Amino acid sequence: MDFRTEFKPLTVQPQEIEDKSFQIITEELGEHPFSEEQFPVVQRVIHASADFELGRSLVFHPDAVRAGIEAIRSGKIVVADVQMVQVGISKNRIEKFGGEVKVYISDKDVMEEAKRLNTTRAIISMRKAVKEAEGGIFAIGNAPTALLELIRLVKEGEAKPGLIIGMPVGFVSAAESKEELAKLDVPFITNIGRKGGSPVTVAAVNALSLMAERLG
């Protein structure tokens, strides 16, 4: 049996593949409302998801990109809501400036406290994270309850994040949590609707770290 295919890839060079992908994204996206500094984030989100609707639904606080770059270059902590986000972030660029990527959801004390209070580990993990990551980037791609708790902590003055990237995916509270985030007067990157997830949240962080690195 012949399993050969007639299809041949345009290129097998990684950088050429990425460059071609970004060219296609730019051409197919067409006119858009994003600024020059926001567009690299949009590109990488679409690149990670192949979803133009998701890309077009991104919402930026006016200071979001600047705040994210500044947090990275200042060596602030990047807090991930789940391990999948932590694993996907390009840590070498974060660590280059003295920062680190941390996730608290599986910490023993977090699990014990969540069990004691009969609540989610995501909620307790945010309560722990805000005590250690003032001025840092909170990257939430999975847990709406983590985002809602972080929003509560910001409103009550217990959290002072440098940037919140909130793009949790799902059917229960995901869209609503992002609507609440967009009302905050702190730098944020989010999107409208149920779509989102760990890969696109990672893509946003990596876009910011690339921009931070290119500043020298």
TrEMBL record:
Query: What family does the Swiss-Prot or TrEMBL record give for this protein?
Result: Belongs to the CobH/CbiC family.
GO biological process, alphabetically ordered: cobalamin biosynthetic process
Q: Which InterPro entries match?
A: Cbl_synth_CobH/CbiC, CobH/CbiC_sf
- Any idea where the Cobalamin biosynthesis precorrin-8X methylmutase CobH/CbiC domain is? 16-209
UniProt protein name: Precorrin-8X methylmutase
Q: Where are the transmembrane segments?
A: none
- Which molecular-function annotation in GO is an example for this chain? precorrin-8X methylmutase activity
- One Pfam family name is CbiC
Pathway(s) the chain acts in: Cofactor biosynthesis; adenosylcobalamin biosynthesis
Q: Would the keyword Isomerase be found if you checked this record's keyword annotation?
A: yes
Organism superkingdom: Bacteria
Alphabetical keyword list: Cobalamin biosynthesis, Isomerase
Q: Which organism is it from?
A: Brevibacillus thermoruber
Keyword Isomerase on entry: yes
Spell out the coiled coil positions from the record: none
